[in-house]
């Protein structure tokens, strides 16, 4: 029995993880769960999973959380520090399923005490990869990727001899607009953007999948997770989302991980690692899938992928600026303040305006993130007017 903490327990990834916990009694003892503001959802999850501690980021939701857990014996906390407290409690495995850079402080708290991290929260690695990696080296923390592409790479990567790897090829569904022209993209709605053809996910990552920024963030995530050069990273569109990613070796062999597109497979892999456990995911039926297609991404129609590639190449704080601007732009698109094509424009303008430089600490990341958010917000105002 291992102890498990889930940061972001009420979201898409968090609730699929709790589904696996419920299906495998005796495998994980839940230590702590966190959420942003959904007190009722968090309380229900804490009671159902037998958690010892429940933390809510939004302090205004604390009374509702306390009321909902009255008499349960489950401790509660609120505010950003309570999220870090959840991460510091002795969960052997910490699943980071918060969306956005808000997940960084609790993720770092778990890394610093040497926990095993199942990382879904890709924005954390994008905005502070070197800081997280340095902390992990110091504490001996283990970082296991949950993102399906990185989980696939992790499964077929030669961790002992990375010099044998010639290329990491991340697959990308292409999102709901993969055949749209720029003119058609100008008028898409939030509902259209959230209708992902293959995966059912939270709103932010669904929008990121529609702009291809998700793949850009994943390139940077791969750069932080796997010891290969930027020139060895590649992206290929694969609409069926059956091949979850590939590793090409120096001899020309290409190893891939395949499976039905169900996040419970990579979540279970990371949470049970180094074991493999049964999941309720549909078995892959290749005869039913019929054909697997692959083609190159179009960086003209989807400039977010190019912006991310450039930010990764620039290094330092550029990925943090990219990520912060994207979070602001996506939130503004979801709120109806700006259009779909404003997202890449806001990110590009923010990258052009905010100077980038080296980042070596959490405080420096927080400062750059804040500066980029202010600039991106001004861009939103200018475009919304
Ligand atoms: P979601 O929106 O469904 O859930 C997000 C969770 O984070 C919720 O529990 C929410 O309460 C919490 N949260 C949101 N804002 C917060 C804040 N400011 N402070 C503290 N907590 C906050 O998101 P999701 O789709 O589950 O994605 C979570 C992460 O996993 C993202 O980084 C995403 O990119 C990554 N990811 C998701 C999927 C997927 O299939 N959903 C796949 C791969 C990677
Ligand atoms: Mg992914």
Summarize the structure in words:
There is one protein chain. Helix content is 48%, strand content 15%. The strands form two sheets. It has a seven-stranded parallel β-sheet, with helices on both faces. It contains 17 helices and eleven strands. Strand 5 (93-96), helix 5 (104-112) and strand 6 (116-119) form a beta-alpha-beta unit. The longest helix has 23 residues, at 362-384. Helix 4 packs parallel to helix 5 (104-112). The structure holds nicotinamide-adenine-dinucleotide and magnesium ion.
CATH architecture of one domain: 3-Layer(aba) Sandwich
Low-confidence stretches: none
Distance between the termini: 56 Å
How does the helix and strand content classify structurally?
alpha/beta
How many helices does DSSP assign?
Answer: 17
Strand tally? 11
State the CATH topology of one domain: Rossmann fold
Reading side by side through the largest sheet, how are the strands ordered?
A: 4-3-2-1-5-6-7
Give me the secondary-structure topology:
Layout (H helix, E strand, L loop, with lengths): L1 E6 L4 H12 L4 E8 L3 H11 L3 E4 L5 H7 L6 E4 L1 H9 L4 E4 L7 H9 L3 E4 L2 H18 L2 E4 L2 H9 L8 E8 L9 H4 L4 H5 L8 H9 L1 H13 L7 E5 L5 E7 L4 E5 L5 H9 L13 H4 L13 H12 L3 H17 L5 H14 L8 H23 L1
Parallel strand pairs: 1-2, 1-5, 2-3, 3-4, 5-6, 6-7, 8-9
Antiparallel strand pairs: 8-10, 10-11
Helix pairs in contact: 1-12, 2-3, 4-5, 5-6, 6-11, 6-15, 10-15, 11-14, 14-16, 15-16, 15-17, 16-17
